[in-house]
From TrEMBL:
One term under GO cellular component: cytosol
Organism listed in the record: Persicitalea jodogahamensis
InterPro entries attached to this UniProt entry: Cys_rich_dom (IPR004017)
Molecular functions per Gene Ontology: oxidoreductase activity
PANTHER family recorded: LACTATE UTILIZATION PROTEIN A, UNCHARACTERIZED PROTEIN YKGE
Superkingdom field: Bacteria
UniProt protein name: Fe-S oxidoreductase
A family per Pfam: CCG
Amino acid sequence: MKVALFIPCYVDQFYPQVAIATLELLEKYGCDVHFPKNQTCCGQPMANSGFEHLTQGCSDLFVENFTGFDYIVCPSGSCTLHIKEHLGVPGIAKKCYELIEFLTDVLIVDDLKVKFPYKVGLHQSCHGQRGLKLAQMSELNAPPFSKVERLLDQVEGLELVNLDRKDECCGFGGTFCVAEEALSVRMGQDRIADHLKNGTQVLTAGDMSCLMHMEGIIRREKLPIKVMHLAEILNGAEISVAEPVS
């Protein structure tokens, strides 16, 4: 299948290893992956700030760059959800998948054959969970499920940490972290405290934006937690981490 790789701005600028891991992961499962070089921001930051009427240029360029592919795959739930719900082009939206849902729903990956012998704390981002339905929301009286955990269960040696509040927001929220800086930081501190309490060695998520927010707090407070995108773990990254927190 012919797959276009849609890489968010912050991944492109600050975390290129996440894009590389995504590319390698897709190629492992036989995808013919292409990277449209003229792609730019999808327009989500403007839309989230109340200026969706100014995103038409971004939308038009996205359609121009990503037309003609079987699928569009992005390692970010928030950017994927923006394309699905705000682009206004059904033919493009229905072909756009967040990486985890593409692996589980399209490629139907059931044997990753990778090792990651660490205690991993999963942050389920709000857009992925509540927008893309990657996992059940704990506030609903409904059977639990998690597409992310289904993949992590296939990773040899990985121990998934049992958090006290597994689907609470980290406080990033796009431009919310700029408009409400103090509240955003406190929410992030609360999430990290949950991981510290339960012995997380590696904090992971499908949205590098949430991880970027929490990584800033972890670095400032010099905490023994490493931050990694899910694509890196599922691609078999080799790392060294600090001892788990007791």
